[in-house]
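Morning F.,

Quick status update on the modeling queue. The single chain you submitted on Monday has been processed. Sequence for confirmation:
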Amino acid sequence: MFEAPSIVFTAAGLAVFAAAVLPKLLRNAPLSMPMVFLAAGMLAFTFIPGLPDPDPLQHGEFTTHLTEVCVIISLMGAGLALDRPLGRRQWSTTWRMLGLAMPVCIVALTLLGLGVLGLGLGAALLVGAALAPTDPVLASEVQVGEPADDEDESERGEDEIRFSLTSEAGLNDGLAFPFVYLAIAISLVGTAPSQWFGSWFAVDVLWRIAVGVLLGWLAGKALGRIFFSARHESIRLSAHSQGFVALAATFLAYGVTEMVEGYGFIAVFVCAVTIRAAERTHGFHRIMHSYVEQLERLMTVVILVLLGGAIARGLLAGVGWPEILVALVFLLLVRPLAGWLALARGKTGPRERIAISFFGIRGIGSLYYLSYALSKGDFSAQAEQLWAIIGLVVAASIVVHGATTAPVMNRLDRLRERKAEAKHGDVGKAPKTPI
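Structure tokens below.
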């Protein structure tokens, strides 16, 4: 008989190898790497009964920290990948999605939680806050690729779909946190605004967001100077091609910000964008981004296998037609409609507008928010129901978006290339064309 450790090591080796190979193999297929590993987890925990139960309710602290680390690493990668300088007009699509689409999603999900799922206000708001953000981890198939390391490539820029989904995912995880804290406060002190509004608005909205932005910017400025401008070559890390220092930037920005009660998610993304701005076309950005991307992919594999295992062991046992209805309405109606309205009269073309609105992938960030809130608030009576609806939406998003991403994005890329060729003649030198 094979012993359990040998089986685990063999499975881990196969999983890591698959994580390296699958993204390229599935590039043109109606199948994604998250779909494969979610299914692998379900199969493994169904047919290998000796595996421990990956129930997130039983292992709440582990779930919180595992998903937390995965998200912040992904946020660093997203910030480093963006070629476009920060600005009001350059990022107008992002601001529309953050300022209009995300609040609409939170409100709609809260109402669905109250009216369809029968949740209390705090729990319904938690569902809205946890599921509203586009995930920076599982949305890699619709995000920008490696950072540009030459002036011509940077000037051509990213297409609007990939840029907006990447930048939205980079910021909305942190901006959803005030609503998570509001849900926690309501669960603890009740629904009367006099019990929570003052401290929530002053601390959870104003202070935490401001501190996250400020410390992220300061950390990015300081690290950018060290990476690219230090007088001594031994300190100027860009000269040594050590990509793992991206982890130092991630953990420093996150840790310092969390120590003073700021939003670490915001700080990490702002830090990454600021480091990128320090020397926009330096090849060291690509080295750091590559390291972060590989680490993120490995952590994603672990989380998806465990999520698949939790589903196989009964995470969705309490799911009924109300939960299925809410999941489908949110993924196929609420998010697409909210994004479509938010981008009205914007600079996106009609096909870009549809794609940005539809590909609001839900994933690891939602799992983190839920596990964090359950550890801080009073949701014990509804914890199983909350995990069921969040797990269902995340799994459905992995399947629906994973099956459509490659065919749709490849089709849009071909349309963009034909339009650019007709307009500019040379696709390789043409800027990204709206479609």
